[in-house]
Design brief:
The chain is of the alpha+beta class. It has a domain of 33 residues. It contains 3 helices and 4 strands; from the N terminus they run E-E-E-E-H-H-H.
Length: 115
């Protein structure tokens, strides 16, 4: 299994992570996680749903403590998801490129000019 030495630090101490790094755009591996009741659950159980994965190695660090406090109820998570959807929807409404794509125009076929 792949080892990534020094991939993370905790209080200035470097740690080795084991396993393949997941990068933006990668399909999430079907790992087994612990749910809020500390019961095992496979990632595939959430297929088709928006998922926020929060990895908290220790509540003794300010960042992990803050992250845990911020997203600790289902209502808060639902609120954040709704706000993100609203923001993306607003940006799409303001974008002429989005409107063109919605109308079926292949943006790669558009000849762009600069004035």
């Amino acid at each position: 299994m792949e080892e990534r030495k020094g991939a993370v630090t905790l209080r200035g101490n470097a740690f080795t992570l084991v396993g393949k790094e997941v990068k933006v755009g990668d399909k999430a591996p079907d790992v087994e996680l612990l749910d809020n009741d500390l019961k095992p659950v496979k990632f595939s159980a959430f297929k088709g749903k928006v998922v926020i994965v929060s990895s908290v190695p220790s509540l003794d660090t300010p960042t992990c403590d803050m992250e845990t406090r911020r997203f600790n109820t289902e209502a808060e998570i639902d609120f954040v998801i709704e706000r993100v959807v609203q923001a993306v929807t607003k940006l799409r409404e303001m974008s002429p490129l989005y409107e063109m794509a919605k109308e079926g125009i292949d943006l790669k076929s558009v000849e762009w000019t600069r004035d």
